[in-house]
Automatic annotation (TrEMBL):
One of its GO terms (molecular function) is RNA binding. Residues 81-217 form the tRNA/rRNA methyltransferase SpoU type domain. Residues 1-40 are annotated as: Disordered. The lineage of its organism: Bacteria, Bacillati, Actinomycetota, Actinomycetes, Micrococcales. This is SpoU rRNA methylase family protein. It comes from Serinibacter arcticus. GO terms for biological process: methylation; RNA processing. Residues 1-13 have a biased composition (Low complexity).
Length: 229
């Protein structure tokens, strides 16, 4: 099965302009060593990838696996964390946040507001997790309450608590606002608590995609061990 649709998991869309060492660096792995007679026989392996190589941006554990096999394995090991993003103005950071959410194998990503979002930054990682849509903050908050999840806003508003102080709920939805305005008043009202990322320079805020990565790392540091443990 060929999983490439326009861009592959490396994000390659054509000529990158790389020269020298960058141009010679191999992405992924080549065909399975030894040829067909040495191919593994388990159903999770994709014959096309075994024959031609696996250039996807996946960890070594999933080399040569079919998309369906990767998704099934991830689903069996999902973390309890959910991530939500307010999409009030076609925020370009959503794709980046989805990619990070895949890296932490979150239980689900929730887009609140506009349904359509720019998938380019996701580097096709949205294929490996569940992305849900909620039309507004109230609908999203009702869903979180029904699921017994704590809505934790990430924003540097008055009264927020530093995320590095710990104590993030295990069953949480980390919610991020649009670039610039941050969380909407409606979403702030839905939050059980709001955390901020302590900064030491002059800028008031960091990119929403970067903030999401920091927040997910903070949660994982409290609640997850090594994936190989």
């Amino acid at each position: 099965m060929n999983e490439s649709t326009g861009t592959n998991d490396t994000g390659d869309t054509g000529d990158t302009g790389d020269t020298g060492e960058d141009a010679e660096r191999e992405v992924g792995v080549g065909p399975w060593p030894g040829g067909r007679e040495d191919w593994p026989t388990e159903a999770r392996y994709d014959p096309e990838l075994l024959e031609h190589g696996d250039r996807r941006n996946v960890v070594d554990r999933y080399r040569y696996w079919t998309l369906e096999a990767v998704v099934a394995d991830l689903a069996a090991r999902r973390t309890p964390l959910h991530v939500a993003i307010e999409n009030l103005a076609h925020d370009m950071n959503i794709g980046s946040i989805v990619r990070t959410a895949n890296a932490y194998n979150v239980a689900g990503v929730h887009v609140v507001g506009r349904r359509r979002w720019n998938r380019r930054g996701a580097m096709v990682t949205d294929r490996y997790l569940s992305v849900h849509h909620h039309p507004d903050a109230a609908t999203f908050a009702a869903w979180a309450t029904e699921e017994g999840l704590a809505v934790v806003g990430i924003d540097n508003v008055p009264g927020s608590r530093a995320i590095e102080t710990g104590g993030l709920p295990a069953g949480a939805v980390l919610v991020f606002g649009s670039e610039g305005p941050g969380l909407s008043p409606e979403m702030l009202a839905a939050c059980r608590e709001v955390r901020h990322i302590t900064q030491h320079g002059s800028t008031r805020s960091i990119n929403a995609g970067a903030a999401a990565a920091v927040a997910m790392y903070a949660w994982a540091s409290e609640h997850l061990g090594s994936p190989d443990a």
